[in-house]
UniProtKB/TrEMBL annotation:
Alphabetized InterPro entries for the sequence: Solute-binding_3/MltF_N
Keywords: Signal
Highest taxon listed in the record's lineage: Bacteria
Descriptive protein name: Extracellular solute-binding protein family 3
Positions of the Solute-binding protein family 3/N-terminal domain: 42-279
Record bears the keyword Membrane: no
Origin species: Methyloversatilis universalis (strain ATCC BAA-1314 / DSM 25237 / JCM 13912 / CCUG 52030 / FAM5)
Span of the signal peptide: 1-28
């Protein structure tokens, strides 16, 4: 079943995934994947489909990051695009440690996974490494109707858009005693919600900040800001790489390459080209 990756990430949050990272687990000792990678000269990378601006129609920020990462490792990047399954566990099984029953996968690594301590502790077949960006929720709003985001009170009277069955959806239904509920408008996709924002159907949209930044880039009528909701602002998490457990050489090579790209400012530059503000993971 095809599932929007933004929705997938929010469902993980709704399920209680904690978003603090204090360190990465030690890698085990095997290296079968690394032997294959060095022999072939190619790094197979799994990307979500339909996940603009990170990976969509064969391009995006994550695709560029993976290309830069592979090049730094002296390899060629070989992409594997896939539809998100019902949950992150399914995606990791299909694309990292086992492969899909339809015959594709696994890849050598999967990009744009939550590097989260509690979630990592539940995984016995996958390592989460090399965080390169930090995501959080934000609001794109119509400056012509709202001066700033110092308060959410304007949305008591102005319509507000969310993607159905997401954390913003649940939050705005109950926030501040439910005072915004009557103005909430639901959309199947973020693209539909942004179209409603541009047309004036809604005055604001809440979603992942990276997606919002790219969606309204270059239009000063629709700034992106942090809503004054304490519960939402605490929901921030690093994104990084997933590899099969027991691949220390592959893990070390990826982490060294990613650390170099971050130190040199290349990750920040890549994200900026896709209209995403880099945030320290």
């Amino acid at each position: 079943m095809k599932t929007d990756i933004s929705l997938l990430r929010r469902r993980a949050l709704l399920a209680g995934v904690a978003l603090a990272v204090t360190g990465l687990p030690a890698l085990a000792d095997d290296d079968a994947v690394w032997a294959t990678v060095t022999k072939s000269g190619a790094l197979r990378v799994a990307f979500y489909k339909d996940f603009a601006p990170f990976s969509d129609d064969g391009k995006g920020a994550d695709v560029d990051i993976a290309n830069a990462l592979a090049a730094r490792m002296g390899l060629k990047m070989s992409p594997m695009f896939f539809d998100a399954d019902e949950n992150m566990d399914d995606d990791l099984r299909n694309m990292v440690w086992k492969g899909h029953y339809m015959g594709y996968g696994p890849a050598d690594m999967m990009i744009h996974v939550p590097v989260d301590r509690e979630y990592m502790a539940r995984q016995d077949k996958v390592e989460f490494i090399a965080p390169y960006h930090r995501e959080r929720y934000a609001v794109a709003y119509d400056r012509r109707r709202i001066d700033n985001l110092d308060s959410m009170l304007p949305f008591e009277k102005l319509p507000f858009g969310v993607v159905v069955d997401t954390l913003p959806d649940s939050l705005m239904l109950s926030a501040d005693g439910g005072r915004y509920r009557s103005q909430l408008r639901h959309y199947k996709t973020l693209a539909e919600a942004i179209a409603a924002l541009r047309s004036g159907e809604v005055a604001g949209v809440m979603a992942l900040q990276g997606e919002l930044e790219a969606s309204v880039a270059g239009d000063t009528n629709f700034p992106v800001g942090q809503p004054p909701l304490a519960m939402l602002n605490s929901r921030q998490w690093p994104v990084g790489i997933a590899i099969r457990k027991g691949e220390p050489q592959l893990g070390r090579a990826i982490m060294a390459a990613m650390n170099a790209l971050i130190a040199e400012g290349e990750i920040k530059r890549i994200l900026a080209r896709h209209n995403i503000n880099w945030r320290v993971p």
